[in-house]
Specification:
alpha+beta, five-stranded antiparallel sheet, four-stranded antiparallel sheet, elongated
Length: 176
């Protein structure tokens, strides 16, 4: 009697599974560092959006709004100052956090965050307050540097309210 069964043996199936897993591992080895790089790039543009959001809210509301970054928890927020100088009555408008693969870190010997401190220094909160005309209160701009996947991106906030994203090429900052 002839054996006309078709299919794969257990050994053939095991070989196919091993080859497939090797292909997946090779792809993951290439993809994960790339994803971390894209995470830092996306995070700096998300940060820029929140800074601009604070500026727009100040103009729309007719009084100061504040952008705050908490360096300990990697969170950033937009607050309505309610037109007062006190931090106690600020109204939280928006809040988000940096992706876990992204850190606040500078590639050179400069500070990663040069925005003015918000509240006591030990809170490690920094930010910029925007006046109702869209400019930064007290002409106190600054920068925030994010790192991820070996890449660094810097967001600069200027006194006039404008922002700029730059990329570290290993030697200096390049405008993006």
């Amino acid at each position: 009697m002839a054996n006309n069964e078709s299919g794969m043996t257990l050994v053939e199936l095991a070989v196919v599974a091993v080859v497939a897993s090797l292909v997946v591992m090779a792809a993951a080895t290439y993809a994960f560092p790339r994803l971390a790089t894209e995470g830092a790039k996306g995070a700096v543009y998300d940060l820029q959006s929140h800074v601009q959001l604070a500026r727009l809210e100040a103009v729309n509301r007719g009084h100061a709004c504040r952008f705050v970054i908490k360096t300990v928890t990697s969170e950033f927020e937009v607050h309505d100052t309610m037109g007062t100088g006190s931090l106690l009555d600020d109204d939280l408008l928006y809040s988000t956090a940096l992706p876990s693969a992204v850190t606040i870190d500078s590639p050179d010997d400069t500070e990663a965050v040069t925005l003015p401190s918000v509240g006591p220094m030990f809170h490690k909160k920094f930010g910029a307050s925007f006046d109702s005309d869209g400019t930064v209160e007290g002409d106190a701009g600054g920068q925030i540097v994010l790192a991820g996947g070996g890449d660094h991106y810097r967001l600069s906030v200027y006194a006039a309210g404008a922002t700029q994203v730059e990329y570290w090429d290993g030697v200096g900052w390049i405008v993006r």
